[in-house]
Amino acid sequence: MVEMYFSIPLFFYFRAIYIKIYTSLFIFCCNFAFCFK
Predict the structure, then answer these.
(1) 4-26 pLDDT per residue, tens
(2) Looking at the predicted structure, is the pLDDT value of residue 37 above 90?
(3) Residue 27 pLDDT more than 70?
(4) Which one, of 16, 37, 34, lies nearest residue 26 by Cα?
(5) Rounded Cα–Cα distance for residues 24 and 2 (Å)
(6) FRET partner for 13 with CA separation of 20 to 30 A, picked from 3, 32, 36, 37?
(7) DSSP, residue by residue, 1-37
(8) Cα-based distances in Å from 1 to 14, 17, 26, 32
(9) From CA 1, how far away is CA 12, in angstroms rounded?
């Protein structure tokens, strides 16, 4: 039960980092494509 308690916040924490990295990469690629359009 304690492991479950700690694994859920970690899951959301890593998912937030994962989404943040992907959105920043997506924005970077969009800006890159826009500059060389």
Answers:
(1) 677 788 889 999 999 999 999 99
(2) no
(3) yes
(4) 34
(5) 34
(6) 32
(7) -HHHHHHHHHHHHHHHHHHHHHHHHHHHHHHHHHHT-
(8) 20, 25, 38, 47
(9) 17
Q: Quick one: pLDDT at residue 21? A: 96
Supply the pLDDT for residue 11: 87
Token pair, residue 7, equals 């694994």
Sign for the pseudo-dihedral over CA of 4, 5, 6, 10: positive
Tokens 């990295």 belong to: 21
Say which residue the tokens 């959301």 belong to.
12
Instruction: Give the rounded distance of the alpha carbon of 17 from its chain centre.
Output: 4
